Amino acid sequence: MGLQEPLLIGRDDSDDVLEKRRISSDLRFALKTYSPVIYKSASPCTSSMLKSIVLGSNHMNHVICQLSDEWGEPAETFRKKATMILEEMADNLHLSAIRLLAFILSKVFKRVFRRIRVNTEGIERLKKALSDNPVVLLPNHRSYMDFLILSFVFYTYDLNIPVIAARGLLEIKILSTILRRSGAFYIRREIGTNKLYWAVLSEYVKTMLRMGYAPIEFYVEGARSRSFKSLLPKLGLLNIVTDAFLKKEVADVTLVPISITYERPVDETLHAHDLLGLPKIKESMWALFKARKILGQDFGTSSIHLGEPVSLKALVQGDVNLSQYNLDHRYCNLPSQEIKAFLHHTGCRMIHLQEENMVISPFVLVATILMQKLICSISLHRNIVKIDNGKTMLVQEQQADSSTDKHLMQYAVTVLTCSMYRNQILHIFVRPALAAMALSFTNKTQKEEIFICYSFLQDLFSSEFVFLPGNAKQDFEEACHRLSEWGAVQISKQNIELTETGPLVIFFILSIFQPFLEGYQVCCTIYICFLLMFWLILYLIIVWLLIKEKETIKGPESSRLISSKNRTLIKRRVK
User: Fold this and answer.
1) How far is Cα 147 from Cα 532, in angstroms, rounded to an integer?
2) For residue 383, what pLDDT is reported?
3) CB atoms within 10 A of CB 183
4) In the predicted model, is pLDDT for residue 106 greater than 90?
5) What pLDDT score does 365 carry?
6) Taking Cα atoms as reference points, which of 176, 229, 309 lies closest to residue 519?
7) Maximum Cα–Cα distance for the chain, whole Å?
8) Cβ atoms of residues 209 and 250 within 8 Å
9) Is residue 136 helix, strand or coil?
10) What secondary structure does DSSP assign to 513-528, as a single string?
């Protein structure tokens, strides 16, 4: 009898998309009749037509003329540069490549995953959303597999394959070509203030929205989270999408937060190496070939939860002054402070919706306990933990005292990998932990005093964890409610008091966040030492300058005294 899959903490209204794949032909699956739901107002458009529309748009002509005037060069020069940028960037979506990728991924996923679970209710909601408005998909980003597994699911359920904002992989020509023909469009890692590049990217995304070309997929966090903790939102692409709505280029845009979780990520060790600052593996066919060893490993279950669609129009109403968007400002791309605040709030909200629907595997709970040096039982992640006399401990833990760099690095990789699993549950504990800290630091029972400390701590950690702006009071109430549910505190109208078991619960919660507290403590210590060193050096420089100035003043006076004495002596000798 094979290993039974552990239950995952999450919703159970889900299908396993690999179940049918294991009993039917992969070739038949790849060549199946594919009739996706498309946007009801979509205009027929190929990738080559899309590029022509982008380059011929009024916005692009305006930017090219503006750059031509600024640099004093012919407009045709910038038009050629824009064409080159678009050729490097644009997708080349083609059904034959999608079928080829579906065939390959079916083979690969059946070998590396036990199951790929998808919530069926989310599929039905998304089908309706795809027909009503242009759709923007906002998945979290934890693995290189994210966009592949999502496209595979979309093909399985006859959903329109999204165009995906991608960075990197251009060095692997064969792979990048297949992915480009499967919907990937490539954005440079560093854009900076390149006005022409931003114009091409903006017009390309907006044209896809206007034409209903395909759903657009990008990561609101902007990059892969190597620590598995949610990152603060990056607002570039979200600003472009919002700008298209505000300037009435589209009637509405539907945002769909998507939560992708892995029982064991395919690239977990790679994440740990990145966090340790080890040299990044260069993207190449040889590196891809060496990665084939993962095909013999078991990565458990992957879960995808398609969240409730959110109307951008509904989000904007009441939060943004729409009267400022008129024809006179249709080419102005710099967002106002009001828009920046709206984008940040929307990005944080999408990340919260992702976190709410994440599936927590049993090992995440085990890893949380393991990181606190407690004893438990486990049998799955043998590359991280091992069983010794019925007890579970971190691999390489006994070699941590070894003097060799190799053993120390192996232990560091193990600890960081285990911490990545623990980080997947931090969003559940972060607010109660801050409330527990406030309760411990203030050593008072008055709710108002504790809230003031909580608000300070939330501001302090706002660069580390994602909080909704202006929502501190509600977060505090939610945190206190959870602490009460866990039996840690008793809450009245004005006071919060610990229960008998409260100290033990508080200790457990705070120990989860101890690494972050220690990290901030180290940073503060280094910062203070740096300031003291700076002021000491500044003091020494001032003292040195004062001494030099005195020497400069005394120099001429002493020389004058000497010369006067010499003249007196000469006169006496002459006499």
Assistant:
1) 48
2) 63
3) 27
4) yes
5) 86
6) 229
7) 129
8) yes
9) strand
10) THHHHHHHHHHHHHHH
Cα separation, 24 vs 220, in Å, equals: 36
DSSP for 289-305?
HHGGGGGGS---EEEEE
Return the SS3 of 383.
coil
Confidence of residue 386 (pLDDT cuts 50, 70, 90): low
With cut-offs at 50, 70 and 90, classify the pLDDT of residue 379: very low
CA 221 to chain CA centroid, nearest Å: 3
b/e for 118-148, b at 16 or more Cβ within 10 A?
Answer: bbeebbebbbebbbbbbbbbbbbbbbebbbb
Per-residue pLDDT tens for 146-173? 999 999 999 999 999 999 999 876 667 8
Question: How far is 356 from 306, CA to CA, in rounded Å?
Answer: 11
Helix axes 502-512, 426-442, angle to 10 degrees: 120
Whole-angstrom distance, CA of residue 233 vs CA of residue 220: 5
**CA-based nearest residue to 230, from 118, 357, 341, 337:** 357
Residue 475 pLDDT grade (very low, low, confident, very high; cuts 50, 70, 90): very high
Please answer whether residues 160 and 154 qualify as being in contact, where contact means their C-beta atoms are separated by less than 8 angstroms.
Answer: yes
d(CA 339, CA 345): 10
Q: Which of 464, 360, 312 has the alpha carbon at shortest distance from 7?
A: 360
Report pLDDT for 180: 92
CA-nearest of 201, 267, 191 to 228 is: 267
Tokens of 29: 């699956």
Measured between alpha carbons, how far is 101 from 177 in angstroms, rounded to an integer?
A: 12
pLDDT band at 55 (very low <50, low <70, confident <90, very high): very high
Q: Which residues of 285-324 are buried (b: 16+ CB within 10 A; e: fewer)?
A: eeeeeeeeeeeeeebbbbbbbbbebbbbeebbeeebeeee
pLDDT above 90: residue 250:
yes
What residue type is assigned to position 218 of the chain? F
Q: Could you write out the three-class secondary structure of 142-186?
A: CCCCHHHHHHHHHHHCCECCCEEEECCCCCCHHHHHHHHHCCEEE
Q: What are phi and psi of 367, to 5 degrees?
A: -60, -35
